[in-house]
Structures are given as C-alpha cells and as structure tokens.
C-alpha cells in the first residue's frame, strides 16, 4: 500500500535536519510511504534499489548473506533513521536485505528524486554523509573488535550499542526495545548461537541481564561496560 | 611544507568528478598541498581533523588502534583517493591514524572550506557519498568474511582487494605496487603474523605467490580467487 506522506513525518529525521519548510515540502512531494507488516521483507539483497528509505515507525533488520548462506546482521534501523541508501552507490543494487521485525511505516524516494533533492538542497547530502560516515566508523569499530577481542567482550559491545540505539528504562533495568533473538546476537558478533546462549546464561546467573525469547533486559549496564572495556573484575 | 596547488592535480579524482573548470578552480583556491616523507605520520588517531585530504602521489596506510594497543589496518589509500574525511562527521576528531608508506603529496581542506564547497557544488557531496558508501560496503564485506570465513580465505580476499586497488603487471604475475608487510596483512585479516607467514609460505611452495620483505607478487591470481571463493580444489 502506497500513500502520500504528511510533511510532519520528516520532523526529527537526521537526514533532513536543518531544512526549512519549503525544502521539507519539496522532499515529501517526491516521496511515497508504505506500511510493511512484521516479518515481511522490505527488499532483498541483490534487488534493484530505490534512492533511499527512511523509517517512520517500527524496526528493520539489515542482513547480509554470503555466497554460502552465512548471515551477518549489519544493523537494526529505528524510527527516524534512513536505510537502503547504499544501493544508489553500488550499481543500483542493494548490498544487503531488509526485514521488518515489527510493523513498520516507511517513506521512500526513487534514485532520480533523491539525487535531484540532494542537488537542490545540499544540506541533505551533507546530512547523509554524516550518517553514512558514522555508520562506517561503527562498522570499523566492529571489525576491530572482531579482529582483536574475545567473544564475551564483543557480545557486551553489541548489547551496549543496542542500548544506546533503542534502550528504554524499565523497572528491572534497561530493555532493548525490539525483538532480538540470540541468533541475531550471534550474527552481530561473528559467533555461534551456542556461544551466545552460554554467555547470556552466565550473565543471567550473575544478575547482569535477563533474557527471554526475542527479549533482552540489561539489569546492570555498568557491569556490562566493565566487560566490554575489559576492566579488572574488582571494578565491576 | 605547504604550497598552493595546481588545478590539474584534481584531474581524475572521483571526489571531484563531473565538476566544471570554474568549480575546480574554486576547489583548489580553498586547498593546500603538502609533501610528506615516507614513514611520517600525516595525522594521529584522536587528533583534531581537517575537512578532507586527497592523495596526489604516494601511498597512505589508515590504521585504527584499540584501547589496549591492538591495531587494525583499515585500508591503503592510493593516488587520487580521499582520506581522513570521517573526522568531519565524528566530532572533528580522526577515528584512525594515517601514515605515509611511500613519499607522498597530499592536498587538504579545512572543515569550513570543505563544507562550503559541498554547499556551493553539491556534486562534491554526492561524489563523497558514493566513495564513503563504497567503503562502507567494503568494510561490511570484511566484517562478514571475518565472522564466517576461515583465515586462509580472508588472506586471499585481502590480497585480491589490494590487487584490484594497486596491482601492476610484472613478468612473474601481478605485483602489489607498494610496501606491504606480513604484519599489515595480519592486521587486515584479524589474524597473527605467525598465521600469515605460515599461509604465505604454503602458497609460495605451491607457486601461487612470491613474497619478500614488504613485497608481494601474485603468480596465479585465478588460484587465489579459487581459495577466496572456496571453490573445490579440482577447479583450482
């Protein structure tokens, strides 16, 4: 289902920060929105790409699959964030797939419309550079972690990134605000489901986290930071 | 040493592709060039950043160091490529360091100058998005390789990327056209110097590569592709 968007949906999106009302009206005139039910694929790796997507509501998982079927979770996208934009620069083809992990509303632009918008309003291109630059820095961090850190620290880093991105205070601590499986965590940290399960069980026994099916609560964020940063046990 | 650049140095740089002569003249007016001797540091991780660097001549290694001193080689930059640009989007601080691995000439812009250039000439911002987008896709590929592939394949992938980037035909095969140590390869593939040495020695015994101190020649690129893609030995 495709509907014409209301300009108010762009409010607070980093991609459109600093634009005036006339520019925002121009941006929505070129856009279409769509509702995507939980579990549906928004686009597949290798599909021909749109010029850009931004999430209005819901949560999207970006997954890359290797030639032999091995999956890596690239990131989770939350409300207000852009996604799928790399296709514009990768021969028009999505380098990874996107799946709705909650009911979603997205807004999208064709490649020609997004390019023309960036030329008319260079601030959009500068904003996009900041966003993609930040993601490049984050993936470089993950590469360094994966190259040099043992698995327990990588899982702690991945959980802390998710807390920063989508944490919400609950009575027991900080909850990661969307469905997150142990398999997702394994595919985010380059390890196996078995190792993630063993690590989370040990942390549960120590009272650091609480996890159920597709549900994680960090009870002691400071202790998780100590693991991620490899601080001596005394300071945990 | 800082000298005013000649507009001809921008020719063929992807960052400035599609600009007319007036725009190129504007770009060089805002720039400064500098010579950097082999072995010198151009900037350190954590230093306050410039708005952008582009390499006119030479070769630069971008290295990220973790809190405990573990290093990861992010990439090698060749003539015509931009580097150091992420600082503009990371609180003004370089997220990685840059070392000249050959005598270099670079051209650079302040953050204010680069932002103003992108606003006056949105094509520069769109070009930068394409470049940073391509690098993000490449680091995502490396993350997937590191998560899911055994070390021999990762070393083969790293060498093939360097061949695409800086390979030159020589009598014995394809030479990687800049000084590359086994330690560099270890820091590009998340493994140890010992493992890289053992792997290269095995490949040398099979006649696939030839390597000396800071020097690698691929004698049989197709055989290396077969290893990288995990094709059955029969087809090697």
Automatic annotation (TrEMBL), chains A, B:
Keywords: DNA-binding, Transcription, Transcription regulation. It comes from the Bacteria. SMART domains: cNMP, HTH_CRP. One of its GO terms (molecular function) is DNA binding. Signal peptide: none annotated. Residues 15-104 form the Cyclic nucleotide-binding domain. GO terms for cellular component: cytosol. The keyword Zinc-finger does not apply. Residues 149-222 form the HTH crp-type domain. Pfam families: cNMP_binding, HTH_Crp_2. This is Crp/Fnr family transcriptional regulator. It comes from Azospirillum thermophilum. The lineage of its organism: Bacteria, Pseudomonadati, Pseudomonadota, Alphaproteobacteria, Rhodospirillales.
């Amino acid at each position: 289902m495709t509907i014409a968007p209301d300009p108010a949906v762009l409010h607070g999106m980093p991609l459109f920060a600093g634009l005036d009302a006339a520019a925002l009206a121009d941006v929505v005139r070129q856009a279409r929105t769509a509702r995507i039910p939980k579990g549906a694929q928004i686009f597949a790796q290798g599909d021909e790409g749109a010029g850009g997507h931004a999430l209005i509501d819901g949560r999207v998982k970006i997954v890359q699959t290797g030639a032999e079927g091995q999956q890596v979770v690239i990131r989770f996208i939350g409300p207000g964030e852009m996604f799928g934009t790399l296709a514009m620069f990768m021969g028009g083809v999505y380098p990874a797939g996107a799946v709705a992990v909650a009911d979603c509303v997205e807004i999208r632009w064709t490649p020609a419309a997004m390019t023309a918008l960036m030329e008319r309003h260079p601030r959009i291109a500068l904003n996009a550079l900041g966003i993609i630059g930040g993601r490049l820095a984050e993936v470089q961090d993950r590469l360094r972690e994966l190259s040099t850190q043992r698995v327990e620290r990588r899982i702690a880093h991945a959980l802390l990134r998710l807390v920063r991105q989508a944490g919400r205070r609950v009575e027991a601590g900080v909850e990661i605000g969307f469905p997150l499986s142990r398999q997702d965590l394994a595919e985010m940290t380059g390890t196996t489901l078995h190792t993630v399960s063993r690590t989370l069980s040990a942390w549960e026994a120590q009272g650091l986290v609480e996890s159920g099916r597709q549900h994680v609560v960090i009870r002691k964020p400071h202790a998780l930071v100590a693991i991620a940063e490899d601080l001596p046990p005394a300071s945990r």
